Amino acid sequence: MVRIVAIVSTVGIVALLAGMWFVTRQTGGDQFAQCRASTVAGGAIGGPFELVDENGATVTDAEVITEPTLVYFGYTFCPDACPFDAARNAEAVELLAERGISTKPVFISVDPERDTPEVLKEWTDYLHPEMLGLTGSTAQLKAATQAYKSYYKINPAEDEFYLVDHSTHTYLMMPETGFAEFYRRDISAEKMADSVACFVENS
Question: 149: phi > 0 → left, psi -120 to 50 → alpha, else beta; which?
């Protein structure tokens, strides 16, 4: 009888260890595995930056990303993508606030010539009172976009009505763990809010 109990116990322990191994293999030890929809590795995106905020102060990533933060690179003179994407991000922030989850929307302009701090402040305040506008010198923006694997190119023009090509992903950054997820243009504010909430609840 003792031998049977020992065998059953051993089989149970082996099964438990096998189950734990399987789960670990599936999630990779990632606490956010059930929240992720993208396949980008967590450490591949994001990093230190130094930019100028909408009040003219120089700020670092540590001063900006103090809570779950939605980061978007664009410019205020953008004729299509930026206004819609930034408004979607602002709506997601509102939906999260209704759930008691505080998040920060950040808009980084890659058009420093036209997007002065004053222009940025007026534009971001119109979209959401908590949206923070950032920009910087060419070197500062290059460092930030490279860290986030983002892209932009200012097209030459003979007047001030030039266009800027740029990536349109929104990045979810967490203050303790860094990059969590990126969102494409086709995701709704509701789905974005659900995703952010999952990361917050599992952090």
Answer: left
Taking each helix axis from N to C end, the angle separating 189-201 and 81-98, rounded to the nearest 10 degrees, works out to 50
**Superfamily the domain 42-201 falls into:** Glutaredoxin (3.40.30.10)
Q: What is the residue-wise DSSP string for 90-120?
A: HHHHHHHHHTT---EEEEEES-TTT--HHHH
CA distances (Å), origin 84, targets 19, 87, 100, 140, 178: 45, 5, 24, 26, 25
User: Which residue in 142, 145, 124, 141 sits closest to 133, CA to CA?
Assistant: 124
Higher-confidence position of 11 and 54: 54
- What is the DSSP code (8-state) at residue 170? E
Q: How far is CA 31 from CA 46, 161, 174, 192, 200, in A?
A: 19, 46, 13, 19, 11
The torsion angles phi and psi of 27, rounded to 5 degrees, stand at -100, -15
**HSE-CB of 182 using CA atoms within 13 angstroms:** 20
DSSP track, 48-68? --EEEETTS-EEEHHHH-SSS
Contact 153, 165 (CB under 8 A): yes
Distance CA 126, CA 115 (A): 15
Token pair recorded at residue 151: 């892209």
Residue range 89-122, pLDDT digits in tens: 999 999 999 999 999 999 999 999 999 999 999 9
Find the largest Cα–Cα distance for the chain: 92
